[in-house]
User: Fold these one by one.
Assistant:
Number 1:
Amino acid sequence: MSRPRLLALLCLGLIAPAHASEPRPLAIAIHGGAGVIDPAKMTPAHAASYRAGLAAALDAGYAILERGGSSLDAVTAAVRTMEDDPQFNAGRGAVLNHDGDAELDAAIMDGHGPRAGAVAGVRHVKNPIELARLVMEKSPHVLLVAEGAEEFALEQGAVLVPREYFRTAARIRELEEARRRAGELKAAAPGPTGTVGAVALDRAGHLAAATSTGGLTDKHRGRVGDSPIVGAGTYADDDSCAVSGTGQGEFFIRQVVAYDICALVKYRRLTLAQAVRELIHEKLRRTGGEGGVIAVDRYGNIAMDFNSVGMFRGARDSRGRRDIAMYRDAQ
Amino acid sequence: MSRPRLLALLCLGLIAPAHASEPRPLAIAIHGGAGVIDPAKMTPAHAASYRAGLAAALDAGYAILERGGSSLDAVTAAVRTMEDDPQFNAGRGAVLNHDGDAELDAAIMDGHGPRAGAVAGVRHVKNPIELARLVMEKSPHVLLVAEGAEEFALEQGAVLVPREYFRTAARIRELEEARRRAGELKAAAPGPTGTVGAVALDRAGHLAAATSTGGLTDKHRGRVGDSPIVGAGTYADDDSCAVSGTGQGEFFIRQVVAYDICALVKYRRLTLAQAVRELIHEKLRRTGGEGGVIAVDRYGNIAMDFNSVGMFRGARDSRGRRDIAMYRDAQ
């Protein structure tokens, strides 16, 4: 152990008694998409599989917080776990665009700074959330898109994969079905998606948020939703809160949903739960927008709310809470 | 003249006396970039030419408002005028990226709705602001990027041009100079740019904002700044205000500058000028971010402020104001 770390531990030991009854809170929340699957069509086997996927991501993130790691590492690990799980619409298993390709978007934000990095429209990056983090840490930029983002991935040695990596049998079937129904859907607003995301508070009091998605099945090439847009689908600031959204991206962009929640907390002194409720059940609903968010504030309060049929989600904190749910009534 | 329009005019005639002393205000403000040219290096001929370019854009927009047109049409016309003028970093005359190409970003937002459309990383679209408007009006999406955005341009019949259209002799020289200095600049934050933008209030009380840019000279391919990001470089909502920004885009994105100004007006009841000052001289400066914004509220108040050496700008309203300025002291 390094000397500074040893000293820090000794100091913690000395001041521990004063704080023993109330250690600094840890908290993480994740989502795996809103309104994705009609509860009537969810088989017990499917439900168990989704729950296991959510639990794996939740616990991967919380383990990092528990051993003193940063919220940034925790949200990266949680999102990467869901990117690698083909059940979720991010990374492997992302939905396919009109041309039959996965086109992936992701963003990460460190509430300490704050700093942010994002990528959009990448088609060969195994873990878009890691590329978003490289943009934040290794470039002076916040957002890189399309081929330029993939060039940056090459420069940074990120893992690239062929397009077939993303094209799972289930997503190819979904695309074919969507194309058949294209006529009737053309005029409708884009439907909700299985975007994944995580927000966390670490021991040092820093907040972070991360979101990753394949967007919409059969989407127009080049369409970018809210996930990689700072303020819309992803936002974190140590002074207020961290938010990750999932739902109809265009509505989230126009309403600047993630930042607006933090603005209500900062400027109107709403609690996190009140601010989330205001956005999801008032502002978003008023315009017809469907979806949900997960959020955490600097006190470790977690809010998870949605106006869609369900939102796959999980929460865990240092007060002993650990739950996974998919629909209302914490089911 | 159609019968409903005739009837409307007659009705206006009947109620006019009550409002004659205080007609509904009209206002437009434009910018042509912040911190672009050291005042010491600005020749009188250059200054006159920039002023003429700004005046042409300002008056093109105001003429539309004056004849009862929409703020959306006014900001489109003002920005398109600057896109077509090679002095400004947007459309023809946009700065060139590391590969020697113009890569253009633009966004437009209609405060009535609100609705928004944006494009990023397009390389063959003559007027990106018109394509952004087509995204808003003819697609269910808000943001299209790169080749997908150009496919959409083709589908919609937007005017496409070869890359040489954008590559003016002056911008090729600037790129060569930037490449020579690349070593020393690599570590520095991206410098301010000559982004263009407009905000307006029309007779019907609707606000609109539009922004268009070529981004940064020698930028990494795929880099997207704040201009096409709703909430960062462009925002409009009839309930609060309309904002267009120019400066170091990454700082504007992280701070959600355009929306934050409107949030301060809505939630903390600051005046527009106070909110703009808070963002530009407090929040942005605290993080080292350089740039400025133009903004208008639903009462027709105009705020234009910057923390850079200068900001090319113009304002005109129905109270008789009409001014063009480049540096402090309204020069």
Number 2:
Amino acid sequence: MGGHDQTLEPFLWRAENIYPDREVVARTHEGTRRTTYAEYGERTRQLANALEGAGVSEGDRVGTFCWNHTRHFETYFGVPNMGAQVHTINPLLPDKHIQYIVEDAEDRVLFVDPSLAEKLAGAYDREAFASVEQFVVMGSDAPDLPIEPLTDYGSFVGDQPPSYEWPSLSSDQPAGMCYTSGTTGKPKGVEYSQDMMWSHTMSILTPQGLGIEDSDVLMPVVPMFHVNAWGLPFAATAAGAKQVFPGPVPEPADIARLIEEEDVTISAGVPTVWLGLLEYLEDHDVDLSTLQSVVIGGAAAPKAVIEQFDDLGVEVVHAWGMTEMSPVGTVANLKYDLRDAPYETQLEKQGKQGLIVPGLEFKVVDDDGTELAWDGEEFGELLVRGPWVTTEYHERPEANETDFEGSWLRTGDIVTVDEDGYIEIVDRADDVIKSGGEWISSQELENAIMAHDDVTEAAVIGVPHERWQERPVAMIVTPEDVDREALTGELQAMLKEEYPKWWLPDGFEFIDEIPKTATGKFSKKDLREQYAGQDLLEEDAPEEAAPAEDD
Amino acid sequence: MGGHDQTLEPFLWRAENIYPDREVVARTHEGTRRTTYAEYGERTRQLANALEGAGVSEGDRVGTFCWNHTRHFETYFGVPNMGAQVHTINPLLPDKHIQYIVEDAEDRVLFVDPSLAEKLAGAYDREAFASVEQFVVMGSDAPDLPIEPLTDYGSFVGDQPPSYEWPSLSSDQPAGMCYTSGTTGKPKGVEYSQDMMWSHTMSILTPQGLGIEDSDVLMPVVPMFHVNAWGLPFAATAAGAKQVFPGPVPEPADIARLIEEEDVTISAGVPTVWLGLLEYLEDHDVDLSTLQSVVIGGAAAPKAVIEQFDDLGVEVVHAWGMTEMSPVGTVANLKYDLRDAPYETQLEKQGKQGLIVPGLEFKVVDDDGTELAWDGEEFGELLVRGPWVTTEYHERPEANETDFEGSWLRTGDIVTVDEDGYIEIVDRADDVIKSGGEWISSQELENAIMAHDDVTEAAVIGVPHERWQERPVAMIVTPEDVDREALTGELQAMLKEEYPKWWLPDGFEFIDEIPKTATGKFSKKDLREQYAGQDLLEEDAPEEAAPAEDD
């Protein structure tokens, strides 16, 4: 009985035919480049002809090492529509990770931006890159680089015919691939089938996702190498929205200019992007009147950012997802009955990771797998499943053992769910401190400690403890002139006000800096390793390091 | 790699957990009945327990013979979630069709409304209904009827436990079933798999569909036995919207009252429903301030209705679909660049069947299968395909031969597509008149003729012609006192103004009435049969009955 397969191609077909003149705009080194969906469609078919000529066929992988621009976008439909897999590589990763990723994915053709060509050449390793039969620089000229065979995009695609008959693909045909950022170990490959990308696209289109319309002008500042710019280019195409790609390393001035010039209505990026823009706005007069919403993901949306955008008449839409989830899982849209709630309540909800989008399911479980109450208090690990959530990693049997539970993905995030259904991440499963059979959120303690003016950075880690399994210790960075003893006292008093006794750190260590991951986050894994075996616990550890009956 | 299966269950799960207090309201014979998604969820599990107790298991079909109310809605999730198929039967069909449908579907349990029980008893036939092991009247008491075994819903479901573990289902598990209305022959069964219903639900949620939000209050006036009330109850659940079911045979007064009392924001139904409401509004003061849009489907939306609702501040959303398409295929949303167009242009677009929704594809072909231009002029048959379009009928090999072309469904509709991508139905494939290798739209001629004040009804049919294959003849109903000769002259002059010479009917026949189908439409098939063999063509048939070079 079943319907036709779920593939990306009809989304492109719709944009090409119903919105042939709608623009696709990109900032490039040579200024703004403008094209239309009609021209874009032709380019995707030229690209498919070129790739076929280079020996790429169904099931092959094609890598990209690029910023956000129209040519990169051409691979988004051009590659999957021909039955191959578009594999976006994060160029900000350490060379070792890039080598691992290319070797693991066995990319046959690799597209690279001129501005990233040197980085790629630096990571180049003949053995790891053995599968790559063609490098294509995304410019008009191929620079002189020690990678080969090397050509430029103009030569590769330019003379190809603009017609190509897309093959009939099945729903489970591999279409995309991304790697997790690998903050804890080797990156893990996640493959996306056609129907995963199809259903993810539909979910983003819904009002419960982002509700994209043809009148929207969508600018993903989130890099296209971050889980396909959160899937936004696919959804924008399906909607017939205008798209704006901000090009290589967009600065706040570029983002502001593009919003103004292109009438951007929705943009999306990590919090630092928006902090940068807000700072820029302090000294510059920018017309943001067309901008309706900014989507914040990749890290928690600070309340101050939500408030400042609100003052500008721009709604912050906080979203959460994972590479394993294509990536969107929750969006913090305000529920109907919160639209008249006090502003503080609204802010609180908008600052959480949000509501699960239709089509997905989740549960929050404790160590024993028991489901926890939705009371905004109890926290446990978040498990999710659904049509666009992967059920395995690419050739990583050991991770497939640990990271999945039946059809459920273990997100590794420790969360609460409130009475309204909003999910809030309180910690990472690796970082949560297990004390006397109960869990303590390291992130919550860190945030509380960092609220003190004399604290520059703080990380709270669990330290092994004979009786209580683990106990929290705070690692703190301060300016040089701070009285550490006094600060410790103040912090202890402050935390005591807010948290149960058994949550209070048993030690306060002052260190020079907190180690960071490749993406700039605190690496508590490194911190734990660095201080392993050292005696970090004070002698007077509490009698009760788990909640007593009356807690 | 693939994600989890696409099933309806997560939509219910989301409503139950994130919107437990959102209301589900129904008009009943005993007044308004109110419940919540939390209670509704429990009822679906009670129902599943009851059905399991009655011997229903995965793959079985459960029939319904009911109006729009909460109990009927309970079967919508309760039956598919347990792996069975919910099969809604149109109680307005002739007895013979009902017998055929029940026998063909082999329903094991059949739910019937008290007000429809007599109709069912009339259609009851021991042999055709042999598969039915249990009849359940959707009231508190089972009336005295000659069908058995018979029980009432209260007894059937009442004492069942409210917990039931929904089985893990695959995407292709049969979940629903409807029959085509059978205007030309036996009804044809269309089965819906879980993923067809899942993807259709997602498409309705998108802004390109109907864009349903949790703040919406949705009232489907379209009967739940018409392709699952166009799938709206599923989409409303996924969105967490409030639902209002207008109960048995809702009159304009009931519809007006429910809109007012329940703050309905979106309603949906066939044109006659809205004509009735508009008439009612002439003499009654009704507060429609919450009503944002009415969805019109099932037949073309008259321009006057669009205009009148527009004056009331209510947007008419014209949609088109088919039983074979779950059913929605197009929605006449205004494109971004038409929002500032002249009102007349907007009206014209909103009156067409609309734009294809994301995820589907279509083409329009002539007799040779050649694709036609999108110019709003050329017309041909519409073919569609996509994840929620069926690829076969239930056990109808001969229809499967003729009604599909590879992965494409032949809709049987003759359409134009304009430059903006709006599809407009100009005729049915069976009714279009093939003259000299070119096509003439019978519907267009009928509409033009019916615009004359002296014409009550008109149907234009193709009559066999030796030289031109077919020629149009107009069958006309007038009031008794009309001068037919004068009228014929006026009509000929009028049509000559608007249409090429070869479109003009070769005959004008005056008859007493035009035969109708079970659903009240003109049955041109019956008309053709009735007048087969009669000489309906005037002697002076035109020299050119196909376009000349200069036409």
Number 3:
Amino acid sequence: MNRHNYIETPLNQPFIENRADPFICFHNGRYYFTASVPEYDRIIIRTAETLSQLRETEEMVVWKKHDQGIMSHHIWAPELHLIKGKWYLYFAAGDADDVWAIRPYVLECLGNDPVTDPWVERGKVIGADPFSFQDFSLDMTVFEHKDDLYCVWAEKVSVGKKISNLYIARMKSPWELDSQQVLLSSPDYSWERVDFWVNEGAAVLFHGDKIYMTYSASATGACYCMGLLSADVSSDLLDPQSWKKEREPVMETMEEAGLYGPGHNSFTQTEDGREIMVYHARQYDEIVGDPLYDPNRHAYLAEVRWDGELPVFVPLVVE
Amino acid sequence: MNRHNYIETPLNQPFIENRADPFICFHNGRYYFTASVPEYDRIIIRTAETLSQLRETEEMVVWKKHDQGIMSHHIWAPELHLIKGKWYLYFAAGDADDVWAIRPYVLECLGNDPVTDPWVERGKVIGADPFSFQDFSLDMTVFEHKDDLYCVWAEKVSVGKKISNLYIARMKSPWELDSQQVLLSSPDYSWERVDFWVNEGAAVLFHGDKIYMTYSASATGACYCMGLLSADVSSDLLDPQSWKKEREPVMETMEEAGLYGPGHNSFTQTEDGREIMVYHARQYDEIVGDPLYDPNRHAYLAEVRWDGELPVFVPLVVE
């Protein structure tokens, strides 16, 4: 297998099957992959020396859901982050007795190897105001910038049918906020309001003098798509006016490629440093039943190209 | 009484005492004044040929709260608008059995004289999505622009302690929305988050090529203050990106003038066409009990001056 042998067709051949909300990080020459599994019952990690090898390497279970109480249902969208030398897993989870009581939780690895070393639970992320993590909240991602740690998450507001917004805050530790929440984005446009009014699944990419933040919008069917925020790296990231929102989605269903409902992405890079976007999509748009329980969201890769200051995501296939 | 005899001291001499959320409109050479009364039990209108005369003219009760059910408690912040030749009153009200179930309601005048002609209830404002007017919602104002009627209101979101945001929508009639809600502003900054996270009391002023929207922020004590949004008149007012929010408040407590917690304003004009801002404030900052039930929010006037494209509100006293 040639590690640079990327081809661009057939585009809807999955990178990794049946793995949604895919997340890949690259550290010290190793790739780590995690994602939601269709059973929503555990956190898995795959590791390999090349992106391609992630496809066939063994998948390890590093944490399983509890039998009851918090973290016992709907184990969603894990992300693996190395923060000041320690590994953390961020994920969302419900309670078997209240399966939609979704909140963000944190695990910390006691050793240097996130696949084989033990993990301890640091519990639910702790807010710094009366509003954060009070309702359905998930998809926490974190990033460091100028010595500060920030997190971004999605949380629903309103009563009855609800609206999922994106919030940012500064953190004082990997599981505790230091600042009050700041509203970054609400579903403003028609493409963010299909079936459900949703902004979720934020992912951060530093490029040039800017910080880019993709997010996913609308319900989890073929209408699912990706929007984009960006800010100057020199700006105050906790000031919503530092962020510019694109008026149109930056990725959406590509029928000609057979890719439906692309979204919930993360960013990584090839071994030679090219920017890669990792996302999930389906190969069909007709879903029987609740899209959330359709197992066929597969992980895909796209190359990040640039059109001036805007990223363009070009689906690619790793042979 | 000289109708142009405005002096600028003492600044905290009220224009009209014990009237909060003051609203003045000027139509066909007459002024009409309405406001919240401390008892929150009725809607009053004063009318006069000059601004000054509003101070001493008789106040008429045009509508009283119901004994029970909707519109039976907390009658707040009436606004009088002439829309395509008919008079409407917008106000917020709760239910005696659920006093915080505040929603926006509309009255329509059956004649041409809003003071003496009968009013009929058009009921609660009807939304066009599953989110509008589902929770504590109030302070609806309306304006016409390019043949469309728009409304702006405040509504709380979240669970437990809540956040009051500002929304805009296009209307298909004076009591029914035509578009889905669009989030215009959330309390982003520290001055919008004192005691309560609040944006409310929007008021619209067209000036030059811009539409300006003031609003009030924080809890209703001395921390109450005014923020500002603005948009180009040629922009899509339903696109939140058309609106620019000022980073700092445009009016706040002026201790040296003895004016505390200024806010909940409206706009009118002098008889000779100068722009006037009408607001309420207290003469002290130490309030015993809930500020909401302190009756001493008085109506004041300020002149609107301009510093480039930004309005500056200069308190004035009408002799």
Number 4:
Amino acid sequence: MSPEEVCDSVKAKIRPSEKEMEKLKKVGDEISRRMKSVLKDHRDIEWKFLGSYARNTWLRGQEEIDVFLLFPPEMDNEELEQAGLEIGKRLLDEYEISYAEHPYVKGRVMDVEVEVVPCYRIRHAGEMKSAVDRTPLHHEYLSDRIRGLEDDVRLLKQFLRANDLYGAEHKVKGFSGYLCELLILHHNGFLPLVRDAREWKRNTVIYPCEGKTEDDTFTVVDPVDPERNVAANLSLDNLARFVELCQDFLESPSEEFFFPRRHVPDREELGRIIEDRNTAILVLEFPRPELVDDSLYPQLDRALRKITMELERHDFEVMRDSRYSTDSKCYLMWECAHSQLPSIRLHSGPPFDLHKHAIKFRKKIRYGRPFIRDGRYMVYVKRKYVRPEECIVDMALNSDLGKHVSEKIRDEFVLYSGADVSEISDIRMHLYDFLSVRA
Amino acid sequence: MSPEEVCDSVKAKIRPSEKEMEKLKKVGDEISRRMKSVLKDHRDIEWKFLGSYARNTWLRGQEEIDVFLLFPPEMDNEELEQAGLEIGKRLLDEYEISYAEHPYVKGRVMDVEVEVVPCYRIRHAGEMKSAVDRTPLHHEYLSDRIRGLEDDVRLLKQFLRANDLYGAEHKVKGFSGYLCELLILHHNGFLPLVRDAREWKRNTVIYPCEGKTEDDTFTVVDPVDPERNVAANLSLDNLARFVELCQDFLESPSEEFFFPRRHVPDREELGRIIEDRNTAILVLEFPRPELVDDSLYPQLDRALRKITMELERHDFEVMRDSRYSTDSKCYLMWECAHSQLPSIRLHSGPPFDLHKHAIKFRKKIRYGRPFIRDGRYMVYVKRKYVRPEECIVDMALNSDLGKHVSEKIRDEFVLYSGADVSEISDIRMHLYDFLSVRA
């Protein structure tokens, strides 16, 4: 199949059905009706549909309606937050409160997910008080311009979703919805974008003018706020993976790029792979702190980095590390080159002819007797850790890995190692990718 | 005891006994007598006693007489060698031929070891044709000057012998007899030398003027050949060990520095030490090529270095290596940090945005699937060797380790590893030092 044929076929599958469209229209109308009555007492507050619902760029089955409340800029913050929550609660059939820069209400209307987000009404980015104030400007910029390209936006979103690249949040570090729409708009469609992206480099500037950055930051300038890089949260490695996918897709176009068949290995298969590698694979499992992903993942990353650095410092040679979470559990994982080290290590001292230092060094009692190599004193000392498990357990129990993470770890943790890790069914697929044997 | 008392006590033990002196005098007289008759047909050849016998600086029990034949400089080389051998054979009761720059005869007269060495008679080093021609000049320089310091020369020789530092040959890389005498002469005795040596550095110049070299070469200028460094064969590490010994001796003087009690561990003790370290200790044993030490050791060193580099290249982390030989066997040995490595290793590829290279890299089929880290392609590849034994055996069988060494190894070799090496009784003491646990 040609890329065009693949795209046409995929579009038909990801475009919301007539029924879904009608249903969302109906919910939208219901929200408008309710808003009229809810806002009766708040003459100074405007409201708007924003996001993929407003621009008709949502993916089939991913219905979600964003309702923004636009408050006058002179209103104080507390008042905004309070009114925002109150309006949200009155609008929704069921709700919960979530926390971004402001608290906001998330819930359902007629069984469709709806978010009610308060912000300040501004005319340009210079007036912005928090990032969310910019969202109405984004919509204003895109709403007319994107018309006719909605299916291409969906293609890109599906392409990214299928490859774990969709979303700017910390967990993913991929492409935001807004970035998707800007890219489609700028290239005038999915395939022109993909063709262009094959050549992207780490210092590419896509928009507003094509060029290069000095500091190796891939850049897409926000048309409503030229100081801002819309791709700031996209990690280097995810940029690289996107470039790779674009190259691969055009080389052999197929729907698998949009609907991948992921192989989920069973316990036996994963166990065999692990034993075959003869590395030290370690997974630290602990209860998930009660945090949303965007708060949790930075903390997991910090804890991971801290333990990895300690493993490296003690010569276990971390080949790769990763983190993962489910609703109830967190996982930190490592693959080390060495499952066991000598009980001793070589410790380097001063040159023999820095006599004062050399004499001091020789007088310390250690495991071995100091000897001279290449004119320098050396000695064998006992290692603190012989196995990576010892290092990780010590860190888990005694090191500050961040308040929330450390609290949960001290409640309870399990450290799996070797083929035993294949017993954790939650992370089998993640481990399979982690070991990078995905075919 | 004071250093002086220790030295006096040791001097009495290492000075040749009256009986030994008398015996050597008798042998010397016998050689003189024989020489008269042997040289009847060679009017143009002079002869001399040189070395420690001639200067009365040999150690008790180390009797050896050096007889030098001084040929006229106009004689051609072949004639010199032929006449030298002929005279030697006629002089000695039993003999064998050894090879230095010229072949020479080694044997016994009245059961004392005698060497008969031919050289050219020269007046100064500028006329020298081979290094051995300089030896009579050395004797000429020292013979009067060293008088009265003979016992101090013996002290230094014994001090060095006891600590494996005596001899300039490749196996030892220590202090030659001539260097010992020059040092004693320059410092006017053993104790002043030892006091001074505590402060020596790698760039020290001892003689003729005290100073420093630019290129970190410890230097003692040859008074009969100012271009020559008499300490050229002294290795940096042996210089450092000498400095350490001088510091230690003056800190706590004792006869042990001259007559060390070496602990020879038994099989059990050595096995326990090895197991306790949890390293990979490997010993390659093979028959000794028929070579004198000074030809053998450079070859052992080259073979050792070659295998060590290969072990390093395959990530086994050589902590220390060494070589040893007996009359019939050679031993190369290593201590590696890892007795086993993962079956895979991380192989680094090009950055993703060197697109041409990256695409080529991705197309190669390997153990794993390429992935991206920090913007660069990486892939797992199978290792060639998982155990250091595999690497050493492969090198032993298939690599050129030098003609003589490779020939012998291909005849027969044994590779010991782990606690098994403690079964090789020949090298137990050497291994004990090698592991640097000597108390």
